[in-house]
């Protein structure tokens, strides 16, 4: 797989604990892949490895043919990988619009003089950023909340704003860590439609970690299952739901 994300025999140890072991899988361009497994299986650790928070003890991670380990998180963001977090991480005292604007700055390479003088080029750039931020907020139904403090939004809206912020960095690959957590059934349905929509609209690849099996089985094209950091199965939602190893390790009676 020359384009997209590729993990090959990736291992990370924390002292005596092998949190991820010899893990290989990939996400092709424009693909929507699920990564599932029991609590503590290593899913968030995989996200932390892909985004440069951790460096693997062994193995390789490539994105569009470029090696990822050793790069800093902001360099990886610039390569086109964005993520959301299991525990929402917004600038809670900033407005909704400023949260998105701040994320958009990742791609700007402004000199201090340029920012201080606030000349016509600066003004034009600012106007373009605001227009783009508002367009994204509009798609997510959050444009009316633009001036609200992020902390004053309800939980579902905060989760959506997290995705908007990730999209604002113009990713090619979006990593979503439990985006449906705490959502009610109708919010989950909206979320599924939204993920499908943004994937098409922005030609995104998506890697989804999620415990809600209706969401995972409903939107993923392919699913990798891990247990104790090791892959125990990979396949289409249908194959995964019928896999005895997955049923035993994770799905249990829910899949029957
Ligand atoms: N920085 C760290 N130091 C030590 N152990 C860690 C560290 N990060 C993760 N772990 C351990 O690695 C294992 C995998 O954790 P991880 O959070 O990746 O699981 P998860 O599959 O995301 O779980 P959940 O579904 O509950 O979010 C756990 O045993 C966890 O305690």
UniProtKB/TrEMBL annotation:
Transmembrane segments: none annotated. The keyword Cell inner membrane does not apply. Keywords: ATP-binding, Nucleotide-binding, Transport. One of its GO terms (molecular function) is ATP binding. Residues 5-253 form the ABC transporter domain. SUPFAM superfamilies: P-loop containing nucleoside triphosphate hydrolases. Pfam families: ABC_tran, BCA_ABC_TP_C. This is ABC transporter ATP-binding protein. It comes from Luteolibacter rhizosphaerae.
């Amino acid at each position: 797989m020359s384009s997209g994300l590729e993990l090959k025999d990736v291992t990370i140890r924390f002292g005596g604990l092998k949190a991820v072991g010899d893990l290989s899988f990939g996400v092709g361009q424009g693909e929507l892949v699920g990564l599932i497994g029991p609590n503590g299986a290593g899913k968030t650790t995989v996200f932390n490895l892909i985004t440069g928070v951790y460096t693997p003890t062994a193995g390789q991670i490539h994105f569009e043919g470029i090696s990822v380990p050793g790069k800093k998180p902001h360099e990886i963001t610039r390569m086109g990988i964005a993520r959301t977090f299991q525990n929402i991480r917004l600038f809670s005292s900033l407005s909704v619009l400023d949260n998105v604007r701040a994320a958009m700055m990742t791609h700007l390479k402004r000199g201090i003089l340029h920012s201080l003088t606030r000349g016509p080029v600066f003004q034009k750039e600012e106007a373009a950023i605001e227009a783009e931020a508002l367009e994204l907020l509009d798609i997510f139904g959050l444009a009316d909340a633009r001036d609200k403090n992020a902390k004053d939004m309800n939980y579902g809206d905060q989760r959506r704003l997290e995705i908007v912020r990730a999209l604002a960095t113009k990713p090619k690959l979006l990593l979503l860590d439990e985006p449906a957590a705490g959502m009610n059934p109708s919010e989950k349905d909206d979320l599924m439609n939204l993920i499908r929509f943004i994937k098409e609209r922005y030609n995104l690849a998506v890697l989804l970690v999620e415990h809600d099996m209706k969401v995972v089985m409903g939107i993923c094209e392919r699913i990798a299952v891990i247990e104790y950091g090791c892959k125990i199965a990979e396949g289409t939602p249908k194959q995964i739901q019928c896999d005895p190893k997955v049923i035993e390790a994770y799905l249990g009676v829910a899949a029957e």
